[in-house]
Amino acid sequence: MTPQELERKVRRLDNDVQSIYELLSTISFTQTRHGGRLDELDRRFDAVDQRFDAVDQRFDGIDQRLDGIDQRLDGIDQRLDSHDKRFDGIDGRFDAMDGKLDEVLTLLRER
């Protein structure tokens, strides 16, 4: 290889090395930007997580209130069942009284 060819090859390699450094510099800059963006997204996700935690706590409170309402409704349901039984008994008594009244009216008409 002649000295000129060798010099040309060295310059070409030097240009290639410089191009590689420029590419690495661009890649490094892009990675730095991406890292900053990822940090920003991380902070935003943390804020969203905190909001979800607050919503979760509110739902827990609502669940507890609904459980209390459910228990109260169960108590009301039991009371209504007992009222139904009492009304069934009263209804039976009225039926018996109605039958007796019919007998009395029949006896009075026969006289």
Number of helices: 1
Strand proportion, as a percent range, falls in: under 5%
Overall helicity: over 70%
Structural class comes to mainly alpha
Which runs of at least 5 residues are low in confidence (pLDDT < 50)? Answer: none
Average of per-residue pLDDT values: 95
Gap from first CA to last CA: 152 Å
- Largest sheet report: none
Q: How large is the radius of gyration?
A: 46 Å
Apparent shape: rod-shaped
Order of helical and strand elements: H
Strand element count: 0
Describe the structure in your own words.
It is a single chain. This protein has about 110 residues and is mostly helical. The protein is built from 1 helix and no strands. The chain has one helix at about 5-110. The termini are far apart.
List the helices and strands and how they pair.
Elements (H helix, E strand, L loop, with lengths): L2 H108 L1
Quick synopsis:
The chain is mostly helical and 111 residues long. Helices cover 97% and strands 0% of the residues.
